[in-house]
Amino acid sequence: MNTKEDFFKEIENSVSEDTFVRLTLSKNADRSATLKKVLIKLALIKKQLQFSFVFRHETNDVTKNFSIKNGLEEIEKLLGDEFWIANLFTTQHDFVFEKNKKGKLKFRKSKPTFSQIPERQHDKPKSDFLQKNNPTEGRATYLQELGILDANDRIQKGKGDKYKQIKKFIEIVSDLLKKNPHVLESKNDEPLRIVDMGSGKGYLTFALYDYLVNTMNLNVKITGVEIRENLIEICNNIATNSNFDNLHFEQGFIEGYELPETDILIALHACDTATDDAIAKGIKANAQLIICAPCCHKQIRKQIKNDSAFEAVLNYGILKERQAEIITDTIRALILEANDYATKVFEFISIENTGKNVMIVGQQRKSEQPRDVTMYLQKVEELKKQFGIEEHYLEKIV
Ligand SMILES: C[S@@+](CC[C@H](N)C(=O)[O-])C[C@H]1O[C@@H](n2cnc3c(N)ncnc32)[C@H](O)[C@@H]1O
To answer: pLDDT tens, 337-360?
Structure first.
């Protein structure tokens, strides 16, 4: 073996004989170029064997996939001209192709470092609910169509936090259903009715439907309610493309939406008092679970008086804002308790992923015993008095 063609032939053979482990191209002829290395492996992408190239630049990686034919053409272009060193690993031999400054070519063939070919399955995002079942036709497309995953099912740049949120949200709902078995037991053959208020782009709504239907095998009907008409159209199209027959999005305001009896009410990051509207609708619709993650908290902030017992705190803008959030959500939790919901308030995801990370979950109490709820309402009154608040919006609509 003494020419570039011979080396290239070894690459072709290793692919056709399925002994290819990996190929690395390094030592860029142009030392000032940002592209420093190319790492090449074989991967099964959409059931087809393809070359996966990672172009390693000084500060970032760019991944591109090529068919075998196009990948070989790409390697041929890069080898020897742009990159002066190539290391080919196969299960039969290791090969080194090298070109020096004078244009002299060197080849080495040695014992193989690897005795087995690597897993060809393409890297999948680490997600229980995506990985557990074999993907059925159209299964993951919603995450691609929503721009969370790329065509190879990898998380898109900048979407990692959203992906974590989706995963965490699914874990929370799954856990709530385990802790509240009556929610499913009460359904018999009827669908579990879920309404997502302020569904936005529907990331969480789609993932929840996918999880409940395709992983938990439940009969589920989910409705997303959202003001923005363009999002309704987009989401309904994606639902159709994904064969999610019982997932629909409707255009409407939360406050004006006529909510029929519902099992689970969700409102994640619905703005300001839209969260209160959703909670009130959920209580009236006899929802067994109310899951919300509040967003901005303007209504109470405007009412808090700086001459209260907390004057020193409230003089600092950011602390007043935080205090407003705490009071708003505490009163929401107390009102839920007063309406017979055992309520939890917790951080549902790390603050690094989103600042809007407080979740309020109300689980309808099943006890037949009448309970004294005046204690909760008294606490609401005390809080309001301390901070000079006239009224929490949720009080007047619930
Ligand atoms: C921050 S996004 C959150 C979307 C989604 N729930 C999530 O967590 O990914 C809030 C969404 O609620 C919608 N929204 C806000 N107020 C609303 C209202 N009163 N009625 C219906 N939708 C509302 C907004 O248009 C927006 O799409």
So the answer is: 999 999 999 998 766 656 678 999
Ligand 1 in reach of 200 Cβ (< 6 A)? yes
- Do 367 and 308 meet the contact criterion of CB atoms below 8 Å apart? no
Q: List b or e across 263-291, with b for residues whose CB sees 16 or more CB atoms inside 10 angstroms.
A: bbbbbbbbebbbbbbbbbbbbebebbbbb
User: Ligand 1 centre and the CA of 3: distance in Å?
Assistant: 63
Q: For the chain, give every residue range classified as CATH 3.40.50.150.
A: 128-397
- Considering only CA atoms, which of 74, 70, 5 is closest in space to residue 38? 74
Band of the pLDDT at 137, cuts 50, 70, 90? very low
CA distance 104 to 86: 14
The pTM is what? 0.69
371 or 338, which is more confident: 338
Residue 252 has pLDDT above 70, yes or no: yes
Would you identify the CATH topology of the domain 128-397? Answer: Rossmann fold (3.40.50)
Residue with CA closest to ligand 1 atom 1:
269
